[in-house]
Amino acid sequence: MSKTGVTVMPEYFQNEGVESVVERLQAAKVDMIATSPYVMEPSNEKEGGREPPVDAGAGSVRLLDRMLWGKRELFVKTAPSFEPEKKIYSGLRYQPAAANGLTFREGGVIKQFLRAAQSKHIQAYLQVQAAIPPGYRVQFGGPVDDDKPRLPDGRVPARRLANNGSLASPHILDYTLALTRDLIRAYPEIDGIRFDWPEYPPYFLDDVFLDFNPHCGLAAQRLGFDFGRMQKAALELYQLFHGGLTNKHLERFDQKDLLAGLVDHPGLLDWLRFKGALVTELALRLREAIPGRIALTFGVFPPPFSTISGMQYSALAKYATALHVKLYTMHWPVIFRFYADQIQKENPGLDETLLCRFLGQLLDIQDPPHASKIADYRYPEPDEAHPVGRDAQIRKIRDAQRLAGQTPVYAFVHGYGPVNDFKNRLAIGRQASAHGVWINRYGYLRNEKIALL
Fold this sequence. Notes:
Blueprint: E1 3-7, H1 10-16, H2 18-27, E2 32-35, E3 38-42, E4 49-51, E5 74-80, H3 101-106, H4 109-119, E6 123-129, H5 170-186, E7 192-196, H6 205-208, H7 214-223, H8 227-244, H9 247-251, H10 255-264, H11 266-289, E8 295-300, H12 305-309, H13 313-316, E9 322-327, H14 332-346, H15 352-363, H16 390-404, E10 409-414, H17 419-432, E11 436-440, H18 447-452
Parallel strand pairs: 1-2, 1-11, 2-6, 6-7, 7-8, 8-9, 9-10, 10-11
Antiparallel strand pairs: 3-5, 4-5
């Protein structure tokens, strides 16, 4: 039976009241609600982060549909909703954020939510970050330099959107497992946990070429991969995209050429498999740490982004209760734009139409014909439809389900955008997935959108 889930960040329980939010979603026939283990309060630009997030500057056009403290955009700060058990993290490089006055004033809202949801037979999930200590929320945290993912030449990328740590770092893994155990201690009644970004999110072109952190050399040796061969192959490909790309490369590109190139360069194929092995190892360790009664789910990139993010669905599906595959369609044209701008800058002689066709085929975000101007790809304004293809969205979900086998794949539709566009994307998600949809997130769901559920 097809189900519906909605992600509701804790600040909306604080602003609108737990019972009000849960009853509104129950009336809309919502089966599952996810939240995160933090609480929030207004702040200022110096001390807080923008809500909604700016997404590396591109998302600064975003505004909330539902007010927070009377505003559609504001600066905020957070604190954990629970008091961490320090002994669980004893000796670890990363430590949880300390409980403070905000925790003690507002933190009980999460327990209230769990009771309210389950009393109405709605499954209650917690969402945390897989590799961004302290892990409560994506915008607050990150790794130290020693644990940052690195390019094949050893550099840390100058610009990133996702502040994930290296998945080969034992310090990142140990903290994620400790946080998981602590959450189960603090909230034993939860129905499931969703880990967000258990991969290398490929928002920028440099993100594609991760990860060659020294931790990866040790992990590769342990897992049976030739780290030097992978590094050499990835560096050669990086150099091609940074000064060696020509119009002839773009003219003859198609998916068959891409597959042939991987076969001809086994170091590249091993590198992609190695990233997948790191993701799968994380999933295995999490499954071992979580009681079987608690669902283990992952919020992940769709194909073909998943190929470069390290998301091997067939392997991950062995440990996941379900996979929530992101149709975050406002991000797709921005990823296209980030890639195109960097490639064009590093290879100034390229034909713009050929470059757009190349990236259009590679990323599969539109139904042909593809736009021929780089400037046509940007973050949509709040009242603009997302410039993505209907069939491209369906392909992504169905490809993910085919690879995941019997493990349920949910279409994870984003609430951002005008009502009619959201209605269309919601219908596409329902058509693509036999299991149902998750919607991210309540802050973008004005009442007209909730009525569509």
